[in-house]
Amino acid sequence: MKNKTAKIAAFFVLSAILAACSQPKGLDVVGKDSVRAFESVLSAIPGNVSRDEANGGWSLLAPDGTVRFIWSENYGKSPRYDVMLELDATPFTDAGLDVGRLPGNYATHDGALIVGTKLGYNDLKHKSAPTPLSSYEQIVDHYRGAIGYHGSLDHYNIDLGDGNLFEWAKDFAVNGAARQDQDKDIVFVLNPKPLIAAGVDPKKVAGWLYAEVTVDIDGKPTLVYKFLKPFNLR
Questions:
Q1: Where do the H-state alpha helices sit in the chain?
Q2: Which residue numbers in the chain have pLDDT < 50?
Q3: How many domains does one find in the chain?
Q4: Which residues span the domain enclosing 101?
Q5: Is 186 helix (H, G, I), strand (E, B) or coil?
């Protein structure tokens, strides 16, 4: 069991946001390739990608239907956040969560928890009718610092604020072939600290893995705990 846990933890090595903001836009390989990789995610589960009118953008639903990644198409019109996770609150309330004790970056709605961040307030312009992919490209174009890359795992991620992330594989085929014990195509990541402070017993949260992972803090690999929900899309 310990070996299995070690393998899981090894897979979920997470990096802090490795922004290449100082690079000229034309040389931003990570930003550009993250668009291609994100398009692969959208193409892999088209039935799980939909318009989200309530949040003014788009939604990618996890295969088990318990959590969504949501991204706005126009930050000047986003009702709450520009990028966020919306997740079923039940596993957390069953594990002791008192929603009244959650910090201000959390909201509740119809049995769901919502956590995310504002990227800005600019009125984004699309060349044609907005699409899920063009709306992601707006993040790369205007808020490149929110996009991260972890080289050893070939995973991209988007920073949702306060240690929360949405991650996806750079290449599904290589992701699985090279790392059989790390074969996850998308991962929803939550910072457990505010949830634990609000009463959650992390070992009792059904459906989420509570694991110690490595992140890069001030250039140094540091072990921290995260709530993780990983999926293969093939």
A1: 2-11, 29-44, 90-94, 132-142, 172-178, 193-197
A2: 4-25, 176-182
A3: 1
A4: 2-231
A5: strand
